[in-house]
Every structure is written in C-alpha cells, then in structure tokens.
Design goal:
By secondary structure, this protein is mainly beta. The protein is built from no helices and 19 strands. It is globular.
C-alpha cells in the first residue's frame, strides 16, 4: 500500500487548520492529512509494533489548539504519547494497571481549551484527567467501559460507554445529562453547532443528536 493509505482507521480528529488525524490501529501509525486529503506526515513506524514506544495498536488521537498531539496507544501499550506540532515525540506516560494514572486499554482521548487531557480508560471503567505533563488531576468513575471522549464549544465533556450511554459532564466531572444510545457506542464527537454524533459498530451507523437527549 502507498504512503498515507489507511487499513484500520480506529480514531479520528481534526485541528484548527482543518488537518485530519487518523489513528491507524493495525498499521501502528497516526496519519495526518491536509484538508485536501493529501498526506502531510505520519507519526510512528508503519507496520512496526513497538512495545512502550509509539505505537502498538493506537486507539485514538487528539490535538490541542497549538498543534500538540496526544495519542492513546491503547491496545498494545497502556500509554499516552505526546508530540509537538512538527511531529517530535515530547513525552509519554502511563503503564498497565488499575491504580491512579495507570491504564487498561486507554481507548479514547480529548484535550480541552485549558490543556487538560481526558482519557477513556476503558477496561478500568473510568475517565482519567491529566495536565500536559501527565500529572493526574482527577478520576471519574461513573462509566462502564468508556470508549471515547469529546468536548463541545461550551466545554461540556461527552463520554460514550458500553451500557450503551453517552454522558455529558462539566469540567469538574459533574454529570449534566445521560443519553440512552442505540446499540453499542464506540465513538462520540461534537461539532461547533452543538450537535453530538455517536458511532455504533454493532448498528453500523452514526446517530446525530441535535439537542442533548433527542435524536
């Protein structure tokens, strides 16, 4: 396959410039495309699984306003990797386990305007909140198998899980509302208009909620 081709797109996000970041789980890379679909760069080594280092079946990717990129290296490594805007590895944190700051399949990741990093720690049934250096700030455990995290324009945190439910929280972790979803919920994202989109693998569908709690 040629440069930039993706075989297992497991996580996706965009930056403020409209560039598209895709976590290709089975090729062990994060691929970055421009708004025109042309390849800009790849993070990681294609077709090479790296224990501890980037990557070993990465699950998701998030980008801060300054272009700093966060990757949940969730299936093979229980780690978060942080890259500069130009693609240099800055730091990594995390290890397998159930204790604070440890992970068991970090499956989804998001970063807010204050550079707090939210990680859906799926098999530990929680979302962990970190600062940019990887210092643990908070742990939210109101979930069952959380799969993804997304943040809307109002800084509400949306978490999808296996119940299946999508939970909206404020930045302190207070639950605002719970949405009973269809089928399973494997991914969630928000647009600038306040719509919430839920991806279902079992239902092979994406469901759009125009207001919280109503499809």
């Amino acid at each position: 396959m040629g440069d930039g081709e993706v075989i297992d797109p497991h996580g996706i996000t965009t930056d403020l410039k409209g560039n598209i970041y895709v976590a290709d789980r089975d090729r062990h890379v994060v691929v970055v495309f421009g708004p025109d679909g042309k390849l800009i760069k790849e993070l990681g080594t294609r077709d090479h699984a790296s224990p501890e280092a980037p990557f070993n079946h990465p699950a998701d990717v998030a980008v801060a306003a300054d272009g700093t990129t966060f990757v949940a290296d969730g299936y093979g490594n229980s780690r978060i990797h942080v890259f500069s805007a130009d693609g240099r590895l800055i730091r990594s944190w995390g290890e397998a386990g159930r204790g604070p700051g440890q992970f068991s399949v970090p499956h989804g990741i998001a970063v807010d305007s204050r550079n707090r990093v939210y990680v859906a720690d799926r098999e530990n049934d929680r979302v962990q909140v970190f600062d940019l250096a990887g210092t643990l700030l908070d742990v939210w455990d109101a979930f069952r198998g959380p799969t993804d995290v997304s943040i809307d324009e109002r800084e509400r945190i949306f978490v999808s899980d296996h119940i299946p439910t999508v939970t909206a929280l404020d930045t302190s972790g207070r639950v605002l509302v719970k949405i009973r979803a269809y089928h399973d919920t494997h991914g969630v994202c928000c647009d600038r208009a306040g719509n919430v989109f839920v991806a279902s693998t079992a239902g092979r569908s994406v469901i759009k909620y125009t207001t919280v709690g109503h499809a």
